[in-house]
Each structure stands twice: as C-alpha cells, then as structure tokens.
C-alpha cells in the first residue's frame, strides 16, 4: 500500500514533533514536509506534492483559513485537515466552507489522530452521501450540504451529538452548529422532526426498507 504523504503546518515546533510521534508507528503515513508559517506552506506543498495537509489556524504570515482556501484552489483532491486549539463553531464552519475536509481539536488523544486523518481522507474519496440518485432533488431543494446530510443520517441512526462528533472527527460544538442549520433549512424544531422529515422525503431508509433489503440479500444466497 502506498503511504500517504503528509505535510504539517504549525508554528509550534513541539506540535509538529507531536504529530510526527503520533504518526510514527503507523505505516500508512509519511511526513514529507513541515512549515512553520502560512507563508512557508505553499512552497513546501509545491515541492512535496502531499496527499494530506495538516494545518494550524493561527500562524504568522498567512493565516490558516487563507491557507485552506489556497490549498483547495491549487488541488481539489488534496485532503486538508485543520488541527486547531480554537474550539469555535464559527471558525470550524468557516474552515469547512473554505475547503477543509475535517476540523480536529488539538485536545484529541494522539493515539486517535492517525484514524482521524484516515477518516478525513476516506471522506474525500467517498461517493456522494445518500441512498440513491432520487434523494438529490429533495436535498437540493433544502440546500443541505453533504456534511449536513451525513449528520442527518447519523440522527436517523439514533446517535448522540457526542457520538456524531467522534464518528466524523468534529468538535461537538460544530455538530450542534450543523444541527442548527439543518433545523433551519428543513423548517423543523427538533431532532425527531428532522429525522421524520428525512424519512418522509426519502433521504433516510425506513426500517421496512432495511428489513426488506436484508431479506432479499438473504434469499439470494
């Protein structure tokens, strides 16, 4: 398996070293470069052509949010993960809006960081969220983003905010922010109403759908 080439951008040398240590025992990763400022990042990326870039938000020179935008404009396929000590709904949403694939708090357990990066990478190459093409009109009509659809699906699975945050490698406050947007777009006032709306508009499979699919799958064996 080809190793993922990683570039780390953080103005604190200790944080760069911490990331190195967190990834050192995992064969999936190879750190190919590091930048101590936003202005250094793009030259490092140009030189190393990474698969994944880990970006701090507060850096001298060019700030992290601008780096995210520039990285996304340069390479639509690169995986961008913001690793930040700033736990703010607005900042997290802005990072995602500018093209980041994930927003990870620096308080994350270092042992969980490799899997968080892999999850972000997998989300980058995964197929569009949704059961089938017939979901698209309803989703487009509401203006739901792919991330919001993903969270809506997690609601349908009965997951708590904490469970959703862990599964999607987001801060719990960021999940709450997305839920607020989902309620507003669907014109509902609760999780239950949002899930009911999603079922009734075909964005989530009903229990009957799941049971029928399981029966069909079993009979085909």
Q: What distance lies between the first and last C-alpha atoms, to the nearest angstrom? A: 32 Å
The biggest sheet, with number of strands, parallel, antiparallel or mixed sense and barrel status, is:
5 strands, parallel
Strand content: 5-15%
> What string, H for helix and E for strand, traces the elements in order?
EHEHEHEHEHHHHHHH
Structure commentary:
- The protein folds into two domains: 122 residues, Response regulator (Rossmann fold, 3-Layer(aba) Sandwich), CATH 3.40.50; 87 residues, Arc Repressor Mutant, subunit A (Orthogonal Bundle).
- Helices cover 54% and strands 12% of the residues.
- It is built from eleven helices and five strands, in the order βαβαβαβαβααααααα.
- A five-stranded parallel sheet has the order 2-1-3-4-5, sandwiched between helices.
- Helix 3 links the parallel strand 3 and strand 4.
- The longest helix has 15 residues.
Question: What structural keywords apply?
Answer:
221 residues, alpha/beta, Rossmann fold, Arc Repressor Mutant, subunit A, 2 domains, 5-stranded parallel beta sheet, 11 helices, 12% strand, disordered C terminus
